[in-house]
Amino acid sequence: MSTTEFKFLRDLPSRHLLGTGTPMCGGCGGLETLHQIYDLIGAKSVIVNAAGCMTLLAVYPFTPFRGSWLYTAMASAPAGAQGVRDALDILKKKGEISPDEDLEVLVLTGDGSAYGMGLSATSAAMDRDLDFLYLCYDNEGYGNTGQQYSAATPHGARTATSKGSHGYPGYKKDLFAIWTAHKPSYVATVVGAEPLDLARKVEKARSLQGPRLIISLAPCPTGWDYEPAETVAIGKLAVQTGIWPLREYVDGKVVHTKIPHPRLPVEEYLVRQGRFHHLFTPEKNEKLLAEIQARVDRYWQEAESEP
Amino acid sequence: MTRQMLTGNGAAAWGARLAEVDYLPAFPITPQTEIIETIANWIDQGEMDCRMVTMESEHSMITAAGAAAATGVRVFTATSSQGLLYASEMIYTVAGWRVPLVLVNVSRGLSSPITLEPDHNDVLAMRDCGFLQFHCSTCQEVLDHMLLAYRLSEHEKLRLPVIVNLDGFYLSFTREPVEIPSQAMVDRFLPPFDAENIRFRAGEPLSEGVAVLGGPTYSYFRYEAHLASLQALAVYDDLAREFQIIFGRKYRLIEEYRSANAEIVFVMMGSFATKAKEAVDQLRAAGEKVGLVRPRLFRPLPVEALYRALAGKKGVAVVDQNLSMGKGGVLHTELASALYGRPDAPPVLASFIGGLGGRDIAPEEFYEMVAVVRQSIIKGELPPPRLLYTEKELREVRKLQTMARTMHRGRGAKS
Ligand SMILES: Cc1ncc(C[n+]2csc(CCOP(=O)(O)OP(=O)(O)O)c2C)c(N)n1
Ligand code: SF4
Ligand SMILES: [Mg+2]
User: Fold this and answer.
1) Which of B98, B132, B135 lies closest to B119, judged by CA?
2) In A, residues 88-117, which contact B (CB 8 Å cutoff)?
3) Is residue B88 predicted with pLDDT exceeding 70?
4) Bond into A154 cis (ω within 30)
5) If you count DSSP H runs as helices and E runs as strands, how many of each does chain A have, helices first?
6) Which of A59, A68, A96 minimises the CB distance to B206?
7) Does A59 sit within 8 Å of B51, measured CB to CB?
8) What distance in Å separates residue B388's CA from the closest CA in chain A?
9) Cβ–Cβ contacts within 10 Å for residue A25, how many?
């Protein structure tokens, strides 16, 4: 990270490439991340999208993108990236396009696709060492269909399909570990509320070849039930409470890029979101809160005891 | 030009090779696999310059195929049966992208029960998606229609993907003499793919597959694709004439075999039509005025050509190698709508279901179908739809059922 262009916030791009006036909700954390990444990647790109909220960015005849866009389906965006990448390589080899006309291929999907339906296509793209960048904006549920729980939903969260007093009974799947098990070139977690960390990771990813995958925690006012203005604060709290560890995987090693010190209690993150309301009212669910805290503590204990 | 004994799969592979396809996303499935193995070998031996990528599913395979075609290279891919249905979401999707590519489907019955043997339910399940559909009956026709399919698919009026269908086993694994044209001849007929400005390039941003809001916009694009697909009828006619000049083989939208002065006509698709031809010859020798009409193109359906070929006939026996549950034969239904209310439409349009899951159709059954149609012409009433099935076959299945029951009971007793 010593050679980064992004030492201070003022080093971040000041010109924004993604058009405004999209149909995303106000305060959308997914869009916040996409803005930042698009500024860095630029218009010489094709975004291959899977079904989700971001699919509605390009609604005929409008698009906020200055580059290209291909909507595929919920399960197979990485396969779409394979087709585009291979075709561009074929055309380059035949001399039908100059290296200058080449495009960067960015897969853009939600967690529902990344953690579930599209996992097989993503795994296979890594097997094939596909040269692409994958951005998963993780709003921890099937947002576009009304925030039902997905494999990315955290334990205890209320969603449209887990409205009972205990919320979602399952546990958030460890996609980072699944991805790194494939030994791709690069994996990272980011959040829009930490733009410098995000920019450095995108910079690092772009300096490499092969499969490079990024999961962005995407606070979602509509699905998580909080005021749109809180998106940045909630994103920061996710990091400060240790719920969302910022880390990267390069050369077979996982490194934490920001270790929260002091680590705030998870309650501070949870209490600000309606989806965890039932943990605090009508009476505090001490047992469940302690359980969530313990899981985060255990994670950091292990992470900090590693060499 | 050389003449070789080729299987239907071999002919399809040769078609792709002669079309100089750039890209082949693949996935194995019986009875298609021989096609991708053949091409993989050619690539390994440096005989073919093509990038082949084995995907993890047919859903991904068709996604990659469509995405590569949208980026501007010539794409070939192949599947069968379960694979075609697994890919079906993307079959519809890439047709909507209006990208040219050719997909060979080697027909095989659908699960369940699972089988390896052929019928047309797989390819007919993709009837409404926007892919054009060729149904071939010989290995030569497979090779030739690969070339015709690329011309049609890439035609500026169409830009639609094409399925070239051949029957599993009966065609895929059957060797027939096939004339393999020289590359120079093929190059005269099929120039390199020119995507023009419809492809992804830096500096020329393009959005594909975008969402629409509202029925009118959706309806517009869907109907536009339908109208484009109908253009294939006239374009195919022109291309087939050009093909005939270069290669000397004559193809038309429908094949008419001894049907011009026939009273009773079989209508069927695919390789089993060659069995009908045999039967027609036998029946003709016995003095019966019968013939065969076989659509080569099923989507778009050559309605006018079919009407012209069938107008004035006394009876038609439609032999469907498929079954639309709760309705019957698909081709029968399609023909009925093509002929309804037209002057001189044949008064008897009889429906026969045969050849499901690879079941053969015997010569005697063709004779029997003619007898049934003849009877109903005389009586002036339509015969009920019929499954071609013999008493012997029924006895065999009854035997299997008895065995199944015995084994079931035997297991139950033990536990
Ligand atoms: C095959 C298929 N099944 C279901 C859907 C319906 N669908 C559209 S978007 C979506 C949710 C996707 O969730 P996620 O990937 O997390 O993206 P988000 O909506 O949260 O942005 C679903 C289930 C679909 N488009 N395709
Ligand atoms: S539902 Fe959530 S992720 Fe979807 S657009 Fe709204 S804020 Fe963004
Ligand atoms: Mg989601």
Assistant:
1) B135
2) 88-91, 94, 96-97, 100-103
3) yes
4) no
5) 10, 8
6) A68
7) no
8) 41
9) 17
Kindly tell me the sign of the dihedral angle through the C-alpha atoms of B302, B307, B310, B315: positive
Residue found under tokens 């916030």: A9
Instruction: Give B298-343 pLDDT, tens digit per residue.
Output: 999 999 999 999 999 999 999 999 999 999 999 999 999 999 999 9
Q: Is the omega angle on the peptide bond into residue A61 within 30 degrees of 0, that is, cis?
A: yes
A113 CB under 6 A from ligand 1? Answer: yes
Name beta bridge partners: B56: none
Compute, in angstroms, the gap from residue A52 CA to the centroid of ligand 1: 5
Counted residue by residue, chain B has a size of: 415
Q: Phi/psi of residue B267, each to 5°? A: -125, 125
- Beta strands B290-295 and B254-257, pairing class: antiparallel
* Model pLDDT for residues B222-271, shown as the tens digit of each residue: 999 999 999 999 999 999 999 999 999 999 999 999 999 999 999 999 99
The span from the CA of B71 to the CA of B260, in Å, is 47
ipTM greater than 0.90 = yes
Whether chain B has a CB inside 8 Å of the CB on A82: the answer is yes
CA of B184 from ligand 1 middle (Å) equals 49
Asked if residue B181 has a cis previous peptide bond (ω within 30° of 0), the answer is: no
The pTM for the full model equals: 0.97
Q: Which residue has the least CA distance to atom 4 on ligand 2?
A: A53
Q: What is d(CA A241, CA B76) in angstroms, rounded to the nearest whole number?
A: 52
Alpha-helical regions (H) of B356-390: 363-379
Could you give the domains of chain B?
Answer: 2-247 (3.40.50.970), 254-392 (3.40.50.920)
CATH 2.60.260.20 fits A3-305, yes or no: no
Instruction: Give the integer Cα–Cα distance in Å for B370 and B289.
Output: 10
